[in-house]
Specification:
Layout: E1 6-12, H1 24-32, E2 35-38, H2 46-52, E3 59-64, H3 66-79, E4 83-87, H4 93-98, H5 104-110, E5 115-124, E6 127-129, E7 132-136, H6 137-144, H7 147-153, H8 156-165, E8 172-178, E9 181-187, E10 189-193, E11 197-198, E12 202-203, E13 215-220, H9 227-237, E14 246-251, E15 253-258, E16 263-266, E17 269-273, E18 276-289
Parallel strand pairs: 1-2, 1-3, 3-4
Antiparallel strand pairs: 5-6, 5-18, 7-10, 7-16, 8-9, 8-15, 10-13, 11-12, 13-14, 15-18, 16-17
Helix pairs in contact: 1-5, 2-3, 6-8, 7-8
C-alpha cells in the first residue's frame, strides 16, 4: 500500500435488492481514488468485522439498504470509524436523506474525495436507528415484508404487503410522555423520526435533517381510513403535521407505552417492543456525505409511490 493510501473495510449485503452487484468495478474505483478495500468472508457478521478490524482500517464502506446500516450502527458507534454508503437496498432512505448518489458506482466514485460529516442517531430501548422508528401499521408492514418480495418488487413490494396487512390493522391506544407532559391518544401509527426520509418515499417532517439534534414525532389519529388518502401527498412532503388529525412535535426524548406489547420497526427491521423509550444522540457518527446545503428539498420525493394506511374504526382495548 502506497503512502497516503487509506484502508476501507468493504462489506456488502448479498441479500440486499442489488446485493449481486459485481464489485470489481467498485474495487477499481476505490483503488484509483487511493482507497484499498479490505473484505471479510461473505458470511461474516458485519458488526463483528467492524469491531475486530477497527484498528486496522480508516473507514467502513457498507453496501446494502437501510436495514444493513441499522444492523451495523452499534459497531460503527463503538469503533468510531466513519461510514461510507453504497446504496444497494430497496428504498435507500438514508442515502436519499444525505443527498448521496443512488447509483452504486456513482456512490463509489464519490467516496474518495468526500468528507465525513456528523449525523445523529435515534435510539429506542437500546437499539440505534438512522431514519425512523414506528409502532402500528408500519411495524406490521415490516413484519409482512420479506427479503424476496423486496428483491422482486422493489418499492412496489411495500404496496403488495400493505394489501395483506390492511385487513387486520386496528386503531390502538398509546400513552405518550415527553417534556413533562403525559397524553393518551388513539392512533393507527406512531412514528419517531431521526432522519428525513423513510418507507421509500415518505418524509418524516419537511424541515427534518439527520443532524438537527431532534426527534420528529407524529401520530396518525384519523377517524376514517379514507381520510388517509387525502393525507398521502402531505405524508410524502412531510407537511402532515399541519393536519388537525395528526399530532406532531419535536423533542429529544419520549416514552410510548401501550396496554399490550407492540413491535417497534426501526429502519424497516422489527427490533424491540413497547414500552418504548426514545432518545436522540446528536452527531454521534461520521458519514461521508455531500455538503448539507446540497441535500434534497421537501418535494424531491413527491413522484415516488405512495403508501396507503387503511384501518377499521374500532380501537382494540
Amino acid at each position: 500500500m502506497s503512502a497516503g493510501q487509506r484502508r476501507a473495510l468493504l462489506i456488502c449485503n448479498a441479500k440486499a435488492r442489488n446485493g449481486s452487484l459485481d464489485l470489481d468495478a467498485v474495487r477499481g474505483i476505490l483503488r484509483a481514488g487511493g482507497i484499498e478495500p479490505v473484505e471479510p468472508p461473505p458470511d461474516a457478521d458485519c458488526r463483528d468485522e467492524i469491531r475486530a478490524r477497527a484498528q486496522d482500517v480508516d473507514l467502513v464502506i457498507l453496501g446494502g439498504g437501510d436495514g444493513t446500516m441499522n444492523t451495523a450502527a452499534p459497531a460503527l458507534v463503538e469503533s468510531g470509524l466513519p461510514l461510507a454508503i453504497l446504496p444497494l437496498g430497496t428504498a435507500n432512505d438514508l442515502a436519499r436523506s444525505l443527498g448521496l448518489p443512488l447509483d452504486p458506482l456513482a456512490a463509489a466514485r464519490f467516496i474518495p474525495t468526500a468528507e465525513p460529516r456528523p449525523v445523529d442517531l435515534g435510539w429506542v430501548n437500546g437499539h440505534y436507528y438512522f431514519n425512523v422508528a414506528s409502532i402500528g401499521f408500519s411495524a406490521e408492514l415490516a413484519g409482512e415484508l420479506t427479503a424476496e418480495s423486496k428483491k422482486t418488487w422493489g418499492v412496489l413490494g411495500y404496496a403488495v404487503a400493505a394489501i395483506r396487512v390492511l385487513r387486520r390493522v386496528r386503531p390502538f391506544t398509546v400513552t405518550i410522555e415527553h417534556d413533562g407532559t403525559v397524553e393518551k391518544v388513539t392512533t393507527i401509527q406512531v412514528s419517531v423520526g431521526n432522519g428525513r426520509h423513510y418507507g421509500g418515499g415518505m418524509t418524516v417532517e419537511e424541515t427534518a435533517t439527520v443532524d438537527d439534534g431532534k426527534l420528529d414525532f407524529y401520530s396518525l389519529e384519523v377517524a376514517h381510513w379514507w381520510r388517509l388518502i387525502a393525507l398521502l401527498p402531505a405524508l410524502r412532503r412531510g407537511t402532515h403535521g399541519r393536519a388537525a388529525d395528526v399530532r406532531a412535535f419535536q423533542t429529544q426524548e419520549i416514552t410510548v407505552t401501550t396496554r399490550k406489547p407492540r413491535p417497534v420497526n426501526t429502519d424497516g427491521e422489527l427490533t424491540t417492543h413497547t414500552p418504548a423509550h426514545f432518545k436522540v444522540f446528536p452527531k454521534i457518527l461520521q458519514v461521508y456525505a455531500p455538503d448539507p446545503a446540497n441535500r434534497p428539498g421537501p418535494f424531491d420525493l413527491a413522484a415516488l409511490g405512495s403508501r396507503l394506511f387503511p384501518t377499521s374504526e374500532t380501537p382494540d382495548p
